Amino acid sequence: MSADGNAQVIDLRPGGEAGRLGRAGHSGGGDFSDSWPGLATYLQEVSRALHCGGGVREMYPCLTSDGRLWWDFGENCHAPNDDPLIPAPVGLG
Predict the structure, then answer these.
(1) Residue among 38, 20, 42 at smallest CA distance from 30
(2) Which region ranges are annotated with the description Disordered (predicted)?
(3) Over the chain, what is the mean pLDDT?
């Protein structure tokens, strides 16, 4: 769920923190400093945001002019490539 092309990754290394969800940037490597404990917890938060409104940490759902879902930083959605965005309606999920 990122507007800049970074990816979310699941930590598959052996150990007590296996399964947590972190981020991997363009420069490589993973960042688990603000990780989710697992994919299920993350997806529950995404579902809550789409169904009840609000965001997932710093990301908020918006819709593009052709109805595609787009996540952006902050509650005021910013347009990718000057495409107008509107906040996603509550109950979308």
Answers:
(1) 20
(2) 1-32
(3) 82
Tokens 């930083």 sit on residue: 73
Q: Which domain holds residue 23?
A: 7-87
- pLDDT band at residue 44 using 50, 70 and 90 as cut-offs: very high
Rounded alpha-carbon distances, angstroms, from residue 62 to 13, 53, 59, 71? 34, 11, 10, 6
Residue closest to 62 by CA, chosen among 73, 53, 70: 70
| Strand ranges across the sheet with 30-36 | 7-10, 21-24, 30-36
Please answer whether residues 51 and 30 qualify as being in contact, where contact means their C-beta atoms are separated by less than 8 angstroms. no
In a domain, 1, yes or no: no
